């Protein structure tokens, strides 16, 4: 949190605008709560098709276990969404959107987010999550839904880590993701007046 806050204060930027700290359309909350588990299910299913090596997943489990021992479950689930979202989707995405197309900025931030996690087995799922979180910020105009989605993702990923997901499970989840995107696009269009 230090770097974004120092930059905002040092450059005398509008804190709320720079970090997208505004309340979203109320419809963004159910869209986030419904979409986050669906995205997680789609990504988990995709990982079975890609064939992530068991050793990589075991390494990931060991790393998570070590973190749990050091800081505990509540902090592990609550702290990263707040800190990472303020930095990646608040500070970094906001800055990059000023100098490039929004889609390019979301993609770059998602790649940096994936690499930041430093585990090759997590690059693809974390990158996809990063795309989803960036899309949430862009479509709602607010960082808060991304923080909530990240929190839901972490809580479910830790809770369901050992659950075997059938490959067909992604089909209903894809329908839910599509419906969520439809709702988020309606929210985005309501926020952004049409230009003629």
What does this structure look like?
This protein has 196 residues and is an all-alpha fold. The protein is 78% helix and 0% strand. The protein is built from nine helices and no strands. The N and C termini lie far apart (40 Å). The model has no long low-confidence stretch (mean pLDDT 81).
Mean pLDDT: 81
- Could you give the order of the helices and strands? HHHHHHHHH
Question: Sheet with the most strands?
Answer: none
Instruction: Report low-confidence residues grouped into runs of 5 or more.
Output: none
Q: How many beta-strand elements?
A: 0
Strand content: under 5%
**What does the overall shape look like?**
globular
Structural class: mainly alpha
Count, helices: 9
Q: What percent of the residues sit in helical stretches (DSSP H or I)?
A: over 70%
* Radius of gyration (Å): 17 Å
Q: Between the first and last Cα atoms, what is the distance in angstroms?
A: 40 Å
Short summary of the structure?
The chain has helices at 2-10, 15-18, 28-50, 54-71, 73-97, 102-116, 120-140, 144-159, 170-191. With 196 residues, the protein is mainly alpha-helical. The longest helix has 25 residues, at 73-97.
Structure characteristics:
single chain; 196 residues; mainly alpha
């Amino acid at each position: 949190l230090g770097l974004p806050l120092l930059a905002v204060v040092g450059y005398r930027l509008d804190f709320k605008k720079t970090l997208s700290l505004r309340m979203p359309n109320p419809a963004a909350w159910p869209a986030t709560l419904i979409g986050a588990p669906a995205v997680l299910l789609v990504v988990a299913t995709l990982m079975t098709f890609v064939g992530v090596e068991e050793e990589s997943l075991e390494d990931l489990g060991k790393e998570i276990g070590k973190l749990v021992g050091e800081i505990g479950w509540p902090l592990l689930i609550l702290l990263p969404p707040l800190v990472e979202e303020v930095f990646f989707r608040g500070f970094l995405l906001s800055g990059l959107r000023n100098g490039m197309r929004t889609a390019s900025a979301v993609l770059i931030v998602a790649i940096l987010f994936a690499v930041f996690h430093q585990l090759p087995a997590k690059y693809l799922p974390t990158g996809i999550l990063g795309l989803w979180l960036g899309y949430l910020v862009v479509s709602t105009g607010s960082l808060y839904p991304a923080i909530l989605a990240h929190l839901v993702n972490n809580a479910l990923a830790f809770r369901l880590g050992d659950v075997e997901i059938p490959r067909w499970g992604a089909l209903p989840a894809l329908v839910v993701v599509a419906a969520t995107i439809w709702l988020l696009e309606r929210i985005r269009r309501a926020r952004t007046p049409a230009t003629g």
